[in-house]
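Reference record
================
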Amino acid sequence: MEDLYKKLMAYGETDAYPFHMPGHKRKNMGDMNPYQIDITEIDGFDNMNDPNEILRDLMERLGKLYGRQYAYLLVNGSTAGNLSSVFATTSQGDSVLVARDSHKSVYNATFLRQLHVDYLYPNMEGRPYAGPVRPEDVEAALCRNPEIKAVVITSPSYEGIVSPVDEIARVCHRYHAALIVDAAHGAHFGMHPELPGVPEEADLIVMSLHKTLPSFTSTGVVLWKEDGLVKREQLEEYLHIFQTSSPSYILMAGISRCVSFLETEGREYFQKYVDNMKGFYNACGNLKHLELLQEKGQDLSKVVIYAKPESTLDGQQLTGEMIMEFLRKEHHLELEMAQFNYALAMTSIMDEAEDLKRLELALKDLDTRCQEMSTEGVSLKDLDALVSHIMKPKEKVMEIYEARALPSEEVALHDAENRVSAAMISLYPPGIPVVVPGERIDRETISYLEDAMKIGLTVNGLGNHGKNLKVC
C-alpha cells in the first residue's frame, strides 16, 4: 500500500512541471515549517469567524488589493463562497437565474436552499467551450420571471472567457436581483493593465486565490459590495455556517504571505509574466495541427491548446486527452485538464521564461508528430459538434431538490433514455454539469457521456464504473 506523504515527496523531486493549479507552482515562497505555525485561536492571533485584530487587518489588505472596502477569507475554497453567496441572497423557495456553465457548487446551493432555477445558456459561437454571458440574455430572462432574486454567472470561465460583468450587474439591479460572480479563476485580475479588471458593480465576487496566485489550495476570498443589494450580516452568517469552525492557520498564513508578496513584488512579477506570455504566444503562432485559442478580452493566463479538425497522432484522431497524455509522458508536463478537442494549461506569475519555453518546445514537438488524416485514414468524429452538447438546453421536469427527494434506482446508462436523472453528471474537471437532477435524459446525452469515457475523460456522477445512471 502506497503512502501519500512519501509519494508526494518523491514526486516533488522529479522534473515534472505543473501547468495546473495551484498558482504557486510548487515553488517555495519562503521557509515555512507547517507544524510550527499550525495553531488554534489562541490569544493574539484573532478568530476568522469573528475577526477584530490581525485577521481583520488581513481582510482589509485583501479588500484594498481588489478595490473593495472589505474582503472575507475563504479556507474551504470557492465552494464555501458560492454556497454562502447563494444563501445570503435568497430565501427558501425563491427563484434564481444560473448560467449553465456554473460550477457544481452553485447547483448544490440551489438544492440545499430548495430554489426554483432558471438557466442561462451562454452561446458557444464557434468555440469548443462556452462564450460570455450576454446582458440582453440576462434581461430577457429577468423579464420572463421578475421574481428572480439572484443571478449567478461564471466570469472568467475555466478557459479565460470574460463576461461584461458590470453591464450585467446594472441589468440585474434594474430588476432588484443581486449578482453573484463566481470568479474562482480571476484572483489575478486587476494586477496588470493587460489583464482584465475586477468588476465594480457585482454584489458578491467569489475568488480562489490558489488557482492563479501563489497561495495554498483551498484559499480564497469573497468580495462584498458595500452599497450593493446584499446585507453584510447575511453573508457573514452563512460564511460561518459553510466554513469550518477550526480554520487552518497554515492556510491563512499562506494568504498573508501571498498578499505581502503582491503588495511588495507583485507589480514587477506581473510585468515580467505578461511579457513572457506574449513571447510564448508569439513563438507558438505557426503551429500546423494545434492552435492556441485566444480572443480579444480573454485571460492570457489560460493556454487553450486546440486540436485542429482532421489532425491525427499515431493514426488516431487527436483529442484533448491525447494532447495531455503526450505532454505528460514525453515532456513531463502536467496540464490542468482535457476536453474532447482541447487541453488546458494554467499559468501564473510563478512560471518563469524557462518554464514556458518547456511548454513551447513540447507543443512544437507534438505538432511535428501530428499528421492530417488521409482519405484512407481513420474515421473522424465531429468533436466540435460533440462539445456543443453541454450548452444545449435540457428538458427540465422538476427542480433539483424535488428530484433528489424522490425514490431512485440505478439503470444501465444505455437504458436511461427518457428517464429523469436523480444524479448530477459532470466532466471533472471543470465540474460543469452535463445533466442535473430533475432533467430528462435523451439519447444525445447518453452518446455524449459514452464518447467522453471512450476518449478517457473523467465523468463524475455515474455508478458501476460509468455503466449506470441513477434515475427517479
User: Anything to note?
Assistant: The radius of gyration is 22 Å.
